[in-house]
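Lecture 7 notes: from sequence to structure.

We start with a single chain of 474 residues. Read the sequence below before looking at the structure.
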Amino acid sequence: MKQLRNIGQFFANFAKDLIQGDMFVKLSLICMGAGYFRRKQIIKGIIMTVFQIAVVVFALMVAVPYLAKFTTLGTVQREMVFNIDTMKNEVNNYDHSFKILLYGLVSIAVLVSSFFVYLSNISRVRKLQVMAENGKHINTFTEDLKSFVNEKFHITLLFFPVVGIVLLTVIPLLVLILVAFTNYDQTNMPPTSLFTWVGVSNFKRLFESSISVTFGYSFKKVLAWTLTWAFFATFTTYFGGILLAMFINNKKTKAKRLWRSLFIVAIAVPQFVTLLLVRNFFADTGIVNTIFANIGITDLLKSIGLVQSNISYIPFLTDPNWAKFMIILINIWIGIPYLMLIATGVLMNIPADLMESARIDGANSFQMFRKITMPYVFFVTGPYLVSSFVLNINNFNVIYLLTQDVYVTLDQALANSQAKEIDLLVTWLYRLTQEYYNFKMASVIGIMVFVICAVFTLIAFNFMIRGDKEEEFQ
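Now the structure, written as tokens:
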């Protein structure tokens, strides 16, 4: 509601400035630089006039042609046509659906932005009129430039980051959202074929299951494993890192630097190297299976039913249950050192007098950990915990590098929708785009990932900042 009121106030101010403005303010509706020329701001007037001309040219050359086809995403398919003049088969003047989608979206963004610049320009030239009538000083172009390194320096600092966010984040995100409402897939692949709008049918497919369409079944399975993985991957490394930091920082622990160095080595080596090595170690014919078979662990696991009797190895990464367990276990090994470093700094900042007071009052080590250490660490690292959960939902490296070209699903329903039992939503999305070119369903899944992460983040942060918890640790 506040945003709507602000927009309404913006248009009200525009109407007021236009009505009360002089002739040159009104002429700025036709030529955006007119008001600046009247106040002797020649360079700024030229800039605004050139801007207006550029927008008009863009509208005529780009926006109008692509927006005219935006509702259909093209009607002329690519084909070879015999040219009588050259006596050769040539490619016709075909429509490219993705270009129409992208350029149409960019055109809407440019035209809407230019429209608001066009309206706000009236308020600016009206302000110059008032300043001139009151005898106030009107900045020259040089003075305006200097203001961007003085009182308006915040605008200078924010300009390039905002442009980068719009070009590299907002526009691709909007394209992703729009693709979810099309039939863009391997059978409708530009430039050889066209794709078109299909409404919300892709979203319906994600929640429906049938003999031929199994996305609903796969989505439930993959979502359940994604949330399970994110929970265990987050909290095992979180509490493991805190306990490891407490162990290393304990007064009775010897060679603290050695212990820290050994664990830091696990994160010093790039993940793609360590994970690929670990994948080979735990392969069906890997060194771990060889050792376990020689010392009798494989036979022991067979006897208690954890390994099928008809195989001679432990399916660490080829059985769905074993693979999920191993993925979480391996993630603990590579994830705990990160939290250990964070927790070490936090533990060193716990007030010593607080711990000493608890000790004098007769609190034992467990009570001090439960009542002082853990609440303090959680208060400081809470935002990291939330962001870690979201990052684990999108943790592509661990799942993909450990299981790609190793794990093969035997669930035909999952295979029909190009999913696997060990897939996260993000790895499923990747496989749909890179291996099967099913961009429409990948976009739908991408939107669902965004919604899940956004809802969880809002709820978690709202819970964490509720109340004045900071005073407890002052």
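The chain has a mean pLDDT of 86. Keep this in mind for problem set 3.
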